[in-house]
Amino acid sequence: MQLKAVFWDLDGTLIDSEPLWHDGELEIAAANGGHWTEELGWECSGTPVPDVARRMIEHGCTLSVEEIDKQLKAYVFEHEKMHMPWIDGVLDTLRSLKEAGIPTMLVSTSPRPIVENVLAAAPGLFSGYVCGDDDAKHKPSPEPYLLAASKLGLAPEDMASCAVFEDTPVGLAAGAASGATVIAQTCTIRTDTSNGPQFTSLDGYAGVDAAAIDAIVRKRLAASAAKA
After folding, report:
1. Which residues have CB under 8 Å from 70's CB, separation 6+?
2. Domain total of the chain
3. Which domain of life does the UniProt lineage start with (predicted)?
4. 125 with 98: CB under 8 angstroms?
5. How far, in Å, CA of 207 to CA of 91, rounded?
6. 104 and 215: one domain?
7. How do strand 162-166 and strand 181-185 relate by DSSP bridges?
8. C-alpha distances in angstroms, 219 versus 26, 103, 224?
């Protein structure tokens, strides 16, 4: 295989957790004088929680950024501990990669407890992670993906042979800036990402195994070589 590694965003890509974040936002806003809607929540998908908190304050929430940040992360963490909302088929994809010897990394702006809870729910399927608490700029910067690659001993010039799964415009931009072969997952996101910087898009994980991801990377490498 030419595929060297696969990097995974979390919310909306591995797990269908965006609704949990939005439910938490709605609950916090309603309890603290704010006006918030599901549509506003989706507009903020993929952005760091403090940025979401600032938007919530602009819409009347009386809590501080720090208080919203703490309460929202706690809401999602507790609900994911009760039930991890894996996207259909993604665990089979992860198992196929493990069987093929392809390392996988979780790359998320979520805090360490949330990310480690996800890894605990999929024992042995991830090689490691980069989270929002690590010393790297947040997406859309490519730094989280480049840091994840370095943890696997991969250099920036190896990124084209790596796949990144993302769903939001912010995440797609981060993956593309890292140089990776970016695959947009569209099965949960409500935002139109068809004009994004990804190499290709998928709607779900049916039939997406290690060989299928390797074929996408090979096609991207061949296209790049033809342009050179």
Report:
1. none
2. 2
3. Bacteria
4. yes
5. 12
6. yes
7. parallel
8. 43, 20, 9
- Is the same domain home to 78 and 97? no
Do both 171 and 151 map to the same domain?
yes
Strand partners, 213: none
Long-range CB pairs of 61-68, under 8 A, 24+ apart, other chains included: 61/28, 61/29, 61/32, 61/33, 61/34, 61/36, 62/32, 62/33, 62/34, 63/28, 63/32, 68/28
159 with 98, same domain: the answer is yes
At 24-82, the pLDDT tens digits run 999 999 999 999 999 999 888 878 899 999 999 999 999 999 999 999 999 999 999 99
CA 228 to chain CA centroid, Å, is: 31
pTM to 2 decimals? 0.88
Domain of 22, CATH number, reads: 1.10.150.240
Residue type, 192: D
